[in-house]
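Lab channel / #folding
Pinned by the channel admin:
"Please post every new chain as: sequence first, then the structure tokens as a reply. Keep commentary short and put observations after the output so the thread stays searchable."

First post following the new format, from NK:
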Amino acid sequence: MRKVISTAAAPAAIGPYSQAIEANGFLYISGQVPLDPATGQLVAGGITEQTRQVMKNIGAILEAAGYTYANIVKTTCLLSTMDNFKAMNEVYATFFPENPPARAAFAVQALPLSALIEIEVIASR
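Reply from TO:
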């Protein structure tokens, strides 16, 4: 069974994709960039503020699907530069005080809307 997950508490998709799909006990959250769901604009500030907003957006989608951060088993973090890795890591760690999920982190040439970070998530029940 495949279920589309959508919430107004996270930014609307900016392309032809769903915020998340739940299938076979897993939740696949599309890459989230640091958009404020109320304004549709990138949040002001640097990597710290952008990482916090991305994680809040992920939290809203998790909640809409009945999951929590503790259900996350894998994340992929895309950064505009590895120079932001340390600051991103400090914010990211606050969302996973125990047993953090598996993770990959990459620097990429560019991200949508000139964001500094994008994170995609897989969670399971």
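NK: The CA atoms of residues 13 and 88 lie 23 Å apart.
TO: also worth noting, The chain has one domain: 2-124.
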